[in-house]
Amino acid sequence: MHVPDGFLDAPTSIATGVVAAAAVAVSLRGARRELDDRTAPMAGLVATFVFAAQMINFPVGAGTSGHLMGGALAAVLVGPWTAVLCMSVVLLVQGLLMADGGITALGTNITLMGVTTVAVGWGVFVLLRRVLPSRASMVAPAAAVGAFLSVPVAALVFTGLFAVGGQAPVDLGSVLAAMLGWHVLIGLGEAVVTGLVVGSVVASRPDLVHGARPLLAARELETRKVEVR
């Protein structure tokens, strides 16, 4: 979903740049509560994995591309604030060194892939974590659902931005059909990858998964209550 230079008009690009800058600023403060001696190394690994996964992309139409995003995966593993920072760094490096996504469209790409996917993926994950059984085995399925939904939502947000400030000579209906159609399929792949990665980490080191920590804390509390009795 990397948006190239000139695909959106200047006002829209500036607006998304402001949104992205504000999100990064807020995330810098929020990440202080998430980062510790376990999360910091994991954040580096997550950024590296997302960078590699996003290198596998294919054209969707009108100069845009489709690929796995990784926002929900990052949010579940290292927390939503740290995930925004990881995604922003990945997109910045891709734009500067790989010419993947335009420099003037960096704010747009961060808003779509570094903010929207993280917010939707994490929000769905937290909601499912509350309604599903409080077991660590439910973390991976909840993360997978959040990942799946985050991708088409980001595609819809992009379509909305194109409706406001699109510069390419492409019909809005065609853009919507192409983006939503392709990204529903991408979302399925995103769900599989997210579920497998999160499930693997939970199975071996659940303490490294940010989204699993409340469940682990509750389990430890129950164990202590049993011991006191």
Determine the oligomeric state from the structure: single chain
The overall average pLDDT, rounded, is: 87
What structural class do helix, strand and pairing data support? mainly alpha
* pLDDT < 50 stretches: none
- At CATH level 3, the topology is Arp2/3 complex 21 kDa subunit ARPC3
Q: Give the strand order, joined by hyphens, for the main sheet.
A: 1-2
Can you tell me the CATH class?
Answer: Mainly Alpha
Number of strands: 2
> How would a crystallographer describe the biggest sheet?
2 strands, antiparallel
Percent of residues in helical segments?
Answer: over 70%
Strand content: under 5%
C-alpha-based Rg, rounded = 18 Å
Q: Short description, anyone?
A:
The protein has 229 residues and is mainly alpha-helical.
Give a verbal description of the structure.
The protein is mainly alpha-helical. Helix content is 74%, strand content 4%. The longest helix has 33 residues, at 172-204. It is globular, with a radius of gyration of 18 Å. It has helices spanning 10-34, 39-54, 71-78, 80-97, 106-131, 139-165, 172-204, 213-228, and strands at residues 57-61, 64-67. The chain has a single domain (10-228), classed as Orthogonal Bundle (Arp2/3 complex 21 kDa subunit ARPC3), CATH 1.10.1760.20. The mean pLDDT is 87. It has a two-stranded antiparallel ribbon with strand order 1-2.
